[in-house]
Predict the 3D structure of the following.
Amino acid sequence: MSADTSPAIELRGASKTFRTPSGAPHTAVRDLDLTVGRGEFVAVVGPTGCGKSTTLTLVSGLEEPSDGEVLVAGAPVGGVGGKVGFVFQQDATFPWRTVLSNVMAGPRFRGVPKAEAKEKARDWIARVGLAGFEDRYPHQLSGGQRKRVALAATFVNDPEILLMDEPFSALDVQTRALMSDELLELWEGTGASVVFVTHDLEESIALADRVVVMTAGPATVKQVFDIDLPRPRKVESVRLLPRFIEIYREIWASLGEEVRITRERGAAHVA
Ligand SMILES: Nc1ncnc2c1ncn2[C@@H]1O[C@H](COP(=O)(O)OP(=O)(O)OP(=O)(O)O)[C@@H](O)[C@H]1O
């Protein structure tokens, strides 16, 4: 199959075993199969500590699988590539750089001439609603504004794949809903494939084409749900649709069981 027609991401029987400080092996991800199509928005939910972030690090190339294969655009992941953008819970801005300089950093790093990088950066700053804030430093912005800078700094690199690890979880509820809407708008214009890890089942349904439920650790795919809600979506209104509530119930029946298993293990550990 040519690289052009292959899925954006494929994990085939991927496992990851870490060595803990005591020297004992710890399997975070086991025999995980997952395919993400081009332009698809996939959300990953699962109980705390099950291995969601580890799955993202395998796709990013930051970690290698102990077993199995991880392919991006049909080719095995070999280190961190330029096709992949990340947005994490923590702000990934450089505190000593202005907004403009933060957003220009990626293109400059890739060798884009200064004037062109500046133009692209200004365009993305405007698209995330921060025109006029170019000369501010991150500490002079709100949490939501800093997150917008992080989004602009990611999208400016035209990523084919966007890996997002609880990107909005540190924000207040209203800002979070706004950012979700903005993310959908930005994403719909790019055709990027997204893997979005979250603890928030509502958020996952509102955003995604498919929601992947992970098992209690070690993570493997328990069930995948197609989200047949119409697009374009606004998260606050989509949540009120009867179909949304129906999907929520179905997924919670699957996820809730894994959360319970994780809790019981925790209780046994404490006892
Ligand atoms: N570098 C590492 N060395 C050893 N163990 C690790 C390492 N990274 C993660 N783990 C362990 O692997 C398991 C999965 O961690 P991971 O961060 O992937 O879970 P998660 O599902 O993203 O958690 P959360 O929902 O709480 O963010 C955890 O038990 C964690 O302690």
User: Anything to note?
Assistant: The chain has a mean pLDDT of 90.
